[in-house]
Amino acid sequence: MNRPRRWRERRRPLRAGRSAILMILTAALAAATARAGDTPRSAASSKPAPARPPGRAAFLDRLLEQSWKSAGVTPARPATDEEYLRRVYLDVLGRIPSVAEARAFLLTKEPDRREKLVDSLLEHPDYPKNYGTIWTVLLIGRGNQGRMVDRAALAGWLRKQFAADRPWNEIVNDLVSASGSNKENGAVNYTLAHLEGEAVPLTSRTTRLFLGQQIQCTQCHDHPSNDWKQGDFWGINAFFKGLKAEDRTAVNETGLEAYDHTELRDEPTDAFVRFDKRNGLVGIAFPRFLDGRKISQGTDVNRRLELARMISDPKSDLMARAFVNRMWAHFHGRGFVNPVDDMGPHNAPVQPEILDKLALEFKSSGYDVKQLIRWITSGRSYHLSSYKPKGADKEDTLFQVMQLRPMTPEQLFDSLLTATGAHKAGNAQAADRKRDAWLRQFTFAFGNDEGEEATNFQGTIPQALMMMNGELMNDALSGKGGSFLEGAVEQAQQQSRAPGAYLVNQVYLAALSRLPNRKEADRAVHYLENHPDSLQVVQDLFWALLNSNEFILIH
Q1: Which residues neighbour 280 within 8 Å (Cβ) at sequence distance 6 or greater?
Q2: pTM score, whole prediction
């Protein structure tokens, strides 16, 4: 390989334009990703899917296969180990695997290696971090909620719940009924984020997230397409009457009294709420759950606690079905019911037998979140490729093909960090500040024209420019101390045979969790060994892979 010392000596920033060499290096990759709905094929040496022994998902497979046979559909081919590895890391840990993690799994020979991988991921510290992040976004969004909402405290509280394997019904109970300091009890921040307008947003968010029911339309009128009435919305809203938030101050490090935290409490009040009807009259609603259950109208009742008990009541199927549907959508790209928070007779599920069975098993497990993840990730539908069989319908209605999914902003950011080691190039405090600043910019760029938050990478011009030329990408490709490229170059220099091939393999594993196929490897190694600036070739190749559809999509 030409001038290996030069790799370490010349650390130039990423150029704004790409060379013709870059176009040649990535021609095969671009061609593979050009067709909508397709993902690039892994290397020819990709390991086939192992024969999956019956076990934790046998009941799922039986129902799936029966539905496919009845409908006369052919499921996609099994996903390769490389495809499954990357998919399950993103879904469980919220990031792609590192080179070391990818190599370790791909060298494993055991037939049950995939189930063992899931078990290990569920014990990884990134699991509670990922699901804490997911539910922080669902509960309060990504925007700045002001000082009354302590995002870090809520995220920290959620991480502790998932790390402790708390049952989902207990987590929901605490979120709905939490009171006290928003700094000491992070769950309080969910309610504080939605108190405006007589807790109307809190009413809507609670029923959608925990019950899978969209009743916000009935705030002003009866629902036009289902049985929900205006009184149903205000019956839930009445549970939140009497909530009071107060800012508390404390002496800070400068000796001045300043804001410290917000306290939330339930004050005794009348139980009813008033609302305007469309006919101009004023309606009155007392606390009443969606299934018609009522509570005492006395002022000494903690109405939120009663609501939390009703939502998490094992006798009700609403919460279990809502969570199972949302989790299935998280792992498959869509739920049995879509939108995931609009369940009911007006919106019939696909594969209703599977939804019913999973919800029943989830309840029987004691609302064990990890067990639900094990079932879903072990089911045959999760092990399928995103390649549609020849002649298959464009629409995947029975989960016979794995859907392509764009990463969320958080997944994309953390995957970039995992692939590049850019956050390690510098001291930890500076890296944390850079991460926070970049993620704020990242999230802002993901907004749509209506000012609402986007949930995944859609390839808009601002997003693409930030990916291609942003500060994080420049740091990733600079070869600075601690970055992936620096380590990869140093390791390649220590190889006695084929250092160029070793380096190309490392770059592909880092970005795509797979080895290059023969054509990709031959092109990359040829230009790496013959171009006068080897480092620039490696930078260009890594840049192209990190900006490819194969990197950005979950497949």
Answers
A1: none
A2: 0.88
